[in-house]
Amino acid sequence: MMLDAELFVLAGFGLFLAVLFKVGAPGKLIGALDARSNRISNELAEAEKLRSEAEALLASFEKKRAEAEAEAAAIVASARAEADMMAAESRKRLEEFVARGEKQIRDKIAQAEASAIAEVRSAAADTASRVAEAVLRGGVNGGKDFVADGIRELRSLTAH
């Protein structure tokens, strides 16, 4: 009896497969699998396209970043060069200013020396002329020490 039951199951399964083949189930199954395979292939192609676009965009941004860094470095270098140039120019101007100040001071000192020498010469000439006048008026042997008097008078004039 078991053989009869197994025979019926086999016959029923065969009939089921025959109906499926008659309806076209294998073709539909293969078509559905092919459609799914095509859809997956299309999605993979789209993903690959998006990946390559993203890589291109990343490369573009990296290039722009590198250009911006280079430009920033150039700006910094230019600013440093300009600052160095301004510092050198400022040092030069300061040195010129100091040199002019020193020259003015030296000129004033020389002028003051010349003025003092002129005053001393003038005082000496005045004293000499007074001594000469006194000598001519009173004679050389008038009992006075004309040299000591002249020195005292010269000291009194230069003290003022």
UniProtKB/TrEMBL annotation:
Could you give one GO CC term from the UniProt record?
A: plasma membrane
Per UniProt, what is the membrane topology? Single-pass membrane protein
Query: Which InterPro entries does the record associate with it?
Result: ATP_synth_b/b'su_bac/chlpt, ATP_synthase_B_chain
Look up the signal peptide feature and give its range: none
Principal location class: membrane
* Keywords noted in UniProt: ATP synthesis, Cell membrane, CF(0), Coiled coil, Hydrogen ion transport, Ion transport, Membrane, Transmembrane, Transmembrane helix, Transport
Pfam families (alphabetical): ATP-synt_B
Coiled coil start-end: 33-78
GO-annotated molecular function = proton-transporting ATP synthase activity, rotational mechanism; proton-transporting ATPase activity, rotational mechanism
The cellular location(s) given in this protein's UniProt record come to:
Cell inner membrane; Cell membrane
According to its UniProt entry, what is the function of this protein?
F(1)F(0) ATP synthase produces ATP from ADP in the presence of a proton or sodium gradient. F-type ATPases consist of two structural domains, F(1) containing the extramembraneous catalytic core and F(0) containing the membrane proton channel, linked together by a central stalk and a peripheral stalk. During catalysis, ATP synthesis in the catalytic domain of F(1) is coupled via a rotary mechanism of the central stalk subunits to proton translocation.
Subunit structure of this entry? F-type ATPases have 2 components, F(1) - the catalytic core - and F(0) - the membrane proton channel. F(1) has five subunits: alpha(3), beta(3), gamma(1), delta(1), epsilon(1). F(0) has three main subunits: a(1), b(2) and c(10-14). The alpha and beta chains form an alternating ring which encloses part of the gamma chain. F(1) is attached to F(0) by a central stalk formed by the gamma and epsilon chains, while a peripheral stalk is formed by the delta and b chains.
Recorded family membership: Belongs to the ATPase B chain family.
Query: What protein name applies here?
Result: ATP synthase subunit b
Organism of origin is Methylocystis heyeri
Gene that specifies this protein: atpF
